[in-house]
Specification:
- The complex is a heterotrimer of chains A (about 290), B (about 325) and C (about 230).
- Chain A contains 11 helices and 2 strands; from the N terminus they run H-H-H-H-E-E-H-H-H-H-H-H-H.
- Helix content of chain A is about 70%, strand content about 5%.
- Chain B is globular.
- In chain B, helix 3 packs parallel to helix 5 and helix 8 (about 175-185) packs across helix 10.
- Chain B is mainly alpha-helical.
- Helix content of chain C is about 40%, strand content about 25%.
- Chain C has a 6-stranded mixed beta sheet, with helices on both faces. Chain C has a 4-stranded antiparallel beta sheet with strand order 2-1-4-5, with helices on one face.
- In chain C, helix 3 (about 95-100) packs parallel to helix 6.
- The chains are: A mainly alpha (about 290), B mainly alpha (about 325), C alpha/beta (about 230).
- Chains in contact: A-B, A-C, B-C.
- At the A-B interface, helix 4, helix 9 and helix 11 of A face helix 5, helix 12 and helix 14 of B.
Chain lengths: ~290, ~325, ~230
């Protein structure tokens, strides 16, 4: 039964990791930009949810649209006025730029919210379903369900809507996209906003199950890396698979090894995959050829 | 003619720094020592990232390895500093020997991320080997003998010497056939193979040298601070800072890393003193400003003004800002 | 229809075009000739807005369009079939064609145009659900032309029609272009194959090192001694 519990925990974590990584994957895949500020955007979303639930007692899941919208705007404006200036530069430069941006966000979060660890406790916090020895908490299940909804939502958006197609086309060939009428800089701003919005909503989900502070964002950025590398760049199904693999691997590791090695697992996975199968488990690049710097 | 001007400038600067401890207070000396340390780290980074074209984002892992190598030797085995430093440096070389082969197969940002992962994984492992490393509680090293003032001077000169050494070493390296091979690899690795350059061996060696220098900085740091912990010596901020220094100073140049170190550390410490609450954010803004406004660095900017024409190894940044190649 | 007045253009560090004077008449087939690197592609990119000219005026249908961004030019009726096809690699033939119709966002028009394109290039109908990467060079070129046609252009620019294609395929394409021209579309075709280009075109311009060195009716150019010596190997 322990094995099954571990697997279930892994799946629940995996779903969350998928939605955490998805905005990151989108931005990287479409704009060839590795957003190191991703983790801080997630944390910002968590704080927004924290504020709202603290002040109004609203259920954290209901705050998703708010964090999504706020982070979307933040992302949109950041891209339009800041990142747009170096969009033609190498990926390496964008890494440094977004690191600087991340520092800015961290400082902002520190100033606004202090360095204290925060968490959210809902009325149903400790409760859940029980099947014999198996325990499936309500909070984690809720997070998992919403994570899947958001992921599916983004997938449908990319495949079915006009804007989604424009984004895809831009990721394949930005000049050709411009030639058929796609406003590329607007697409980039929207993509970054979308990625940020997803991060914000992921942050809201995070706040339900983890405690957080301004400086823990980097962990989520790192995990997003791993998920993307595992599942393949710019692929939404890949993000789900990558997330699940990471979630399950981590949970197995935390049982088999000492708890501290849990984070090390994700990096070992990362390095391993990069070395042995850089195209990820699915081996496909859905949205963009990885451009070398 | 221009070159002798440059050399005499360097000699004057060298002389100045040699005499500093006699008229500057301890606080300023420590700032300079810190700058020299970063100069070493950045110079080391320049070798693998600037000249060879492999952006080792996680190069700070060697800083940490050097620090812990030294620390463990001194604490657990009572080895004197010099011996411990040797072990620490050896550890770094070993690391590149083991991980260089798989990791250097990756390119561009994949390599960058892999080294990042390497750093984080190493940090996590060091953090967990509590019996050996003290884990999260850190490791306290034996204090150096001598008065505080004497020690301050000691470490000042030690790091000044190390940074000069790394500068000279880079200068020799880059003019050598080895250095030329590295730059060829950076321009076009496939062609380099075609010319008969064993790219694998060159890349690993390049990273080894970079690791060695970075490790040495870490070793000295550990002895200097007398206390290290994983989050401090495997800190990504050190890596990023040195990248910014490299960018600001100009990649692939000799003096770039040093100029960059002065500027960034200087600014960093200024903001720390006066704007403590915002110093992180200000560093962030500085980093963004550098990337947006001067992606080719100071040296390129100065080149137009002071004509560093005498230095034939001032190279342009690898990618043109537009990212497009001019039409055939 | 289209006029380039004293156009100078190029890339950040390199000027490629110098003082270009060029006119395109409505309904004609204009050939742009010159060797590799002469600046023909740059010229087309300038017309479509991928490059902004350093100097000079770009006039289209009596309006100066220098400042109009690239993504708005397709709505004006200017469409480019880029060098190297530049299809959207991760998409199917059908998806690529539909992207050509992106700017007008009209389902009915899309369907009409699609049917029309499929009639012109029946092979695309056959392969409509296939990923474009699986198509042959000639088929890809057809898809690229199809995508440009989907946008209902008044002015169709084609960069290096015959590059990498078998002569038989090229002949087919040329014939297809004739019928496209008959339907009222003005054509500007960049070609390295001087003879082939001038056989089908009405007029031509010869570009060398970024300048126009010769222009005139296609038949006249064919018999021009400079052209014969420099480009036709006479």
């Amino acid at each position: 039964m322990l094995g099954l519990q571990v697997i279930i925990n892994g799946i629940l974590s995996g779903g969350l990791y998928a939605v955490v990584a998805i905005g990151f994957s989108l931005i990287w895949g479409v704009m060839n930009l590795i957003n190191l500020a991703h983790g801080s955007m997630i944390i910002l979303g968590a704080y927004i949810t924290y504020l709202i639930t603290d002040k109004t007692g609203l259920d954290p899941f209901l705050t998703l649209p708010v964090s999504g919208l706020i982070l979307f705007s933040v992302g949109f404006l950041t891209q339009k006025f800041l990142i747009n200036r170096i969009i033609q530069a190498s990926v390496f430069m964008t890494l440094i730029l977004t690191f600087g941006l991340d520092l800015l966000f961290i400082n902002m979060n520190l100033s606004l919210f202090t360095a204290d660890l925060r968490s959210i406790t809902t009325s149903y916090a400790g409760l859940g379903w029980k099947f014999g020895d198996l325990a499936i908490p309500y909070t984690r299940s809720g997070v998992f369900v919403f994570a899947l909804i958001l992921t599916l939502g983004l997938f449908l958006f990319m495949e079915r809507t006009r804007l989604g197609k424009a984004i895809k086309a831009t990721s394949f060939d930005r000049e050709a996209a411009g030639l058929v009428g796609v406003n590329v800089s607007r697409v980039y701003a929207l993509t970054f906003g979308l990625g940020a919005g997803m991060a914000g909503m992921a942050g809201s989900l995070i706040s339900v199950v983890y405690s957080f502070s301004p400086v823990v964002g980097a962990t989520f950025t790192m995990k997003s890396f791993v998920v993307v590398v595992l599942g393949g760049l710019g692929s939404i199904p890949g993000a789900i698979i990558g997330g699940l693999i990471l979630g399950i691997a981590e949970n197995i590791a935390s049982v088999a090894l000492e708890a501290g090695y849990k984070d090390a697992i994700s990096f070992i996975l990362l390095v391993g995959i990069l070395v042995f199968r850089p195209r990820g488990i699915l081996g496909k690049k859905f949205y963009a050829e990885v451009k070398e710097s | 003619m221009k070159k002798t001007g440059l050399v005499s400038l360097l000699v004057v600067a060298g002389g100045f720094f040699l005499l500093c401890p006699f008229f500057l207070n301890a606080y300023v000396l420590r700032i300079l020592t810190n700058i020299f340390m970063f100069a070493v780290i950045t110079q080391a980074l320049n070798i693998i990232a600037g000249y060879t074209g492999y952006p080792a984002f996680g190069n700070v892992v060697f800083f940490g390895l050097g620090a812990y190598g030294t620390g463990i030797m001194m604490v657990k085995f009572q080895l004197p500093f010099v011996g411990s430093m040797l072990v620490g440096s050896l550890l770094c070389v070993l690391f590149t020997a083991v991980f260089g082969l798989p990791l250097l197969r990756l390119r561009g940002h994949y390599f960058a991320i892999a080294t990042l992962g390497l750093n984080e994984a190493t940090r996590a492992v060091v953090d967990n080997l509590t019996n050996l490393t003290g884990g999260g509680m850190g490791l306290s090293l034996p204090l150096p003998y001598g008065t505080v003032q004497a020690n301050t001077r000691f470490f000042y000169y030690l790091l000044l010497g190390t940074s000069v050494l790394s500068l000279l070493f880079s200068a020799v390296l880059i003019k050598s056939r080895f250095g030329f091979a590295l730059r060829t690899i950076r321009s076009n690795e496939e062609s380099a193979e075609g010319f008969g350059i064993n790219t694998v061996r060159h890349k690993i060696l390049s990273w080894m040298i970079s690791a060695l220098l970075t490790g040495m900085a870490g070793c000295i740091y550990a002895y200097w601070m007398s206390y290290i912990e994983p989050s401090a010596v495997f800190d990504m901020t050190i890596s990023i800072k040195s990248f910014v220094m490299l960018l600001l100073g100009g990649t692939g140049t000799l003096l770039g890393p040093i100029l960059g170190a002065f500027f960034v550390e200087g600014l960093s410490l200024l903001t720390w003193s006066y704007l403590l609450n915002y110093h992180i954010g200000i560093l962030g803004i500085l980093i963004m400003a550098v990337v947006i406004f001067s992606p080719r660095g100071f040296i390129a900017f100065l080149k137009d003004r002071l004509l560093f024409a005498g230095d034939p190894f001032t190279l342009k940044n690898r990618e043109p800002a537009s990212g497009r190649r001019p039409e055939r | 229809m289209l006029e380039l007045r004293h156009i100078g253009a190029g890339y950040k560090s390199l000027q490629v075009l110098w003082d270009i004077e060029l006119v395109v008449h409505q309904g004609e087939w204009l050939a742009l000739l010159g060797v590799n690197g002469a600046g023909k592609s740059t010229l087309l990119k300038t017309i479509t807005g991928l490059i902004k000219p350093f100097a000079g005026e770009l006039r289209y249908l009596e309006n100066t369009i220098n400042e109009i961004p690239v993504h708005e030019r397709v709505a004006l009726g200017i469409s480019l079939v880029p060098e190297g096809r530049r299809l959207f690699k991760g998409m199917t033939v059908e998806e690529n064609l539909l992207m050509g119709a992106f700017w007008y966002n009209d389902r009915k028009k899309e369907k009409e145009q699609m049917d029309h394109i499929m009639t012109i290039f029946p092979i695309l109908k056959e392969r409509r659900k296939q990923a474009v990467g699986t198509l042959s060079g000639g088929e890809q070129q057809m898809c690229s032309i199809g995508r440009a046609l989907m946008s209902q252009p008044k002015l169709l620019l084609i960069d290096e029609l015959s590059l990498g294609l078998a002569p038989v395929v090229v002949d087919d394409l040329m014939e297809t272009l004739i019928s496209i021209k008959k339907s009222g579309v003005t054509l500007v075709v960049v070609e390295q194959d001087v003879y082939g280009a001038l056989m089908y075109a009405d007029r031509g311009y010869v570009i060398q090192e970024g300048r126009v060195i010769q222009s005139g009716e296609a038949k006249k150019l064919l018999s021009d001694p400079i052209i014969q010596k420099g480009y036709l190997g006479a």
